[in-house]
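[job 4471] stage=fold_predict status=RUNNING
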Amino acid sequence: MYKQVTAYKQAWRRKARRLSTGQCVRIIARETGVRQGVCESVLRGWRALILRHLRTGGEIDLAGVGILSQSVTPGRVLYGLRGTIYDVPPAVGVSFSISRAMRRDLNPRRRKAKVLTAAQAQAKQRLAG
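[job 4471] inference complete, writing structure tokens
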């Protein structure tokens, strides 16, 4: 059981792909037909916009993509086994909630399987065979 779980986690990690800024710029430029310099400045501006909104504690709704919001883990004091005291500072993270449009585009609707009666299945086999 343990080997199956770790194999699944390793396969999942392999699927994750991190794109550098340069790769993002090249992909956007190729898809849109806009020069790479323009794409890079737009990407920098987009990042600055997101950071500005998240630093104020707000959330930002990216139309068609999802909602980014700030999540704060409060600071705390931890006590070690030998009397050591650790002061853990608060940590700021980002939560992402995918939009309905993005979810719909990722999971296209499939037609439901049609349930056949035994007579219909036999007729279908005769026609196919």
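[job 4471] summary: The two ends are 43 Å apart (CA to CA).
[job 4471] exit 0
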